[in-house]
Write a structure and sequence with these properties.
The chain has helices at about 5-15, 30-40, 65-75, 90-105, 120-130, 140-155, 170-190, 205-215, 235-250, 280-290, 300-310; strands at about 25-30, 45-50, 80-85, 105-110, 135, 160, 195-200, 220-225, 265, 320-325. The protein has a six-stranded mixed beta sheet with strand order 1-2-10-7-8-9, sandwiched between helices. By secondary structure, the protein is an alpha/beta fold. It has two domains: about 5-65 and about 170-340, 3-Layer(aba) Sandwich (Rossmann fold), CATH 3.40.50.1100; about 65-165, 3-Layer(aba) Sandwich (Rossmann fold), CATH 3.40.50.1100. Helix 1 packs across helix 7 and helix 4 (about 90-105) runs parallel beside helix 5. Strand 3 (about 80-85), helix 4 (about 90-105) and strand 4 form a beta-alpha-beta unit. It contains eleven helices and ten strands. Bound molecules: pyridoxal-5'-phosphate. Pyridoxal-5'-phosphate (PLP) binds near residues 62, 63 and 206.
Length: about 350
Amino acid sequence: MTVSQEKIRTKLEELPRFKLSHLNTPLEPLDRLQQALKDEGVDVPNRMLVKRDDVTGLAFGGNKGRHFEFEIAHILEGGFDTVININHYHSNQARFIAAGCAKAGLKYHIVSHDNLDAPLTGNLLLCKLMGAEIHRTPNEYARQVAEKIFKEETEAGNKPYILPDDPFSDIMGMIGFLETGIELEQQLEDAGVEGPVRFWGLTGRSIAGLRLYAKNRGLDWRATACQYSPGKVEDFQNVTANRSKQVAEMFDLEVSLDTDDLQVLEDYRGPAYGEPDDRVIEAIQMVGKAEGLILDPNYTGKAMSGLIGELRAGRVAADETICFIHSGGLPQLFAHADKFVD
Ligand SMILES: Cc1ncc(COP(=O)(O)O)c(C=O)c1O
């Protein structure tokens, strides 16, 4: 038994939605990257493709354009007029909420809690341009600051919403990527792809949503998720399995994810969140030169260094088509410009 696309589509249509993205995003070949690896003597897989979720449009694009179409609608439905978010200096999520709030006419506060002396550039600069009020605060006070803003906004007669407190924000990313599954099924067929497909991306909701889609559709789509920050693999697997249960219930799907449904790679996460190692810098340069495709040092560069590393180590099956998920994150590249100076 498999779940029909129609059923998933109907459930998606029932959810409130606030348009933020240009969809469908393209699926493109990575032929020149494949050739560059072949020239090194690497055994390359059947085919290499990239899903261009970096070109969703709004505010420099990215996978989160898909996620926050549901989140912004959910916030509007709740009658909130002010959003309070807590996140990192490097956060792409913070940028997307800023864009969504600007478009929806919501007031937005971002409590940015690390790299306090780092310049106003990348995502944080874009947040500011899109009207966010930025509160740079040490991590240990972030919660307190958010609560203080909540109190002040309430006293001013507004209806604030602390984003990390709402469990919906944990599952809407997976929901957004059920739709990506529908898109990709057609695009892969149009591209004449046969045999197993391996999606390659990062630990998170997006790749999990794709795997959940595939499992329910009975497709031979495998998934590798590279870590981008420290954390136990089992924790990610357990959280993901739990979230997938909630989504499966909501969408009346037949199965949810088991902890081993995603291959998780720890080896490419670099020294810390927001810090790339030399392999990431090399991967970004290699893909830029081969394909004219830009990756970032915090997320997609780490995923690509994982793909190149695993190919070089001969650990990717030859009969698979690799589909790299380019999830965006580009503005933060500029915060790392010094790492590319010769
Ligand atoms: C550019 C980018 N790609 C991937 C991820 C992984 O997480 P998710 O799939 O939940 O967005 C993130 C998380 O912040 C991200 O910013």
